[in-house]
Amino acid sequence: MKAIVTGYSSGIGSEISKILEKNKYEVIKLKSRLNDKKSLQLEIKQILKENDINLLINCAGVGVFKPHEEIGIDKIQELIDVNLTAPIILSNLCLRSLKKTKGHIINISSIEATRHSKFSALYTATKAGLRNFSLALFEELRKTDVKVTNINPDLTKTNFFDDFNFEPSDNHNAHLTAENIAKKVFEIINFEGVITDITLRPQRLEIKKK
Predict the structure, then answer these.
(1) What's the rounded Cα separation, in Å, for the pair 115 and 124?
(2) What are 161-202's pLDDT values in tens digits?
(3) Residue 38 CA to chain centroid, in angstroms?
(4) C-beta of residue 166 within 8 angstroms of C-beta of residue 206
(5) Phi and psi torsions of 201, nearest 5°
(6) How many CB atoms sit inside 10 A of residue 56's CB?
(7) CA angle (43 as vertex; 194, 49 as ends), nearest 5
(8) Domain of life here (predicted)?
(9) Which domains does the chain have, with CATH numbers?
(10) What are φ and ψ of residue 60, in 5° steps?
């Protein structure tokens, strides 16, 4: 069984990769930057010459949370490229292989895809786009037996918050962990049906300023 996991080097992507490798998956690690479309296309084509893919997990993501007029044009493009364009392109490139294996696409979106938060307009737009892409793609692929799942995690204790002025509270009831999300991903992969959309939340809502 072979899987492509983006964002495998840290956070949720790293934990997903670990649990897959413990369960006899070979995780293929992409070398291309997700915003370099030509390199990404060439790399995927080369991978698919030698492998059939059973699982595509789009986990890489970047964020910015501040007034929209203060966000630089390059940052706007980066969020769109990494959070939305790359998963759409990777799904496009891998679909023929996934149809052969009756595989599974899992997109890690965000709680922000389901609500409208202050200073999150850009991030929300990319994640809501990813969520709706997932749900529509599932309808397209139902007859092919390719599964599509969208996951909306709430505050998760990872390095995602390193560059922000806030982070999840240390209270274990107020944040998710990357390890627990990875466990849920593995449950979803093995579910005898399709979980098309799931939101994962801690019991409490607590953040702390840095």
Answers:
(1) 8
(2) 887 877 888 999 999 999 999 999 999 999 999 999 999 999
(3) 21
(4) no
(5) -135, 145
(6) 26
(7) 75
(8) Bacteria
(9) 2-209 (3.40.50.720)
(10) -65, 140
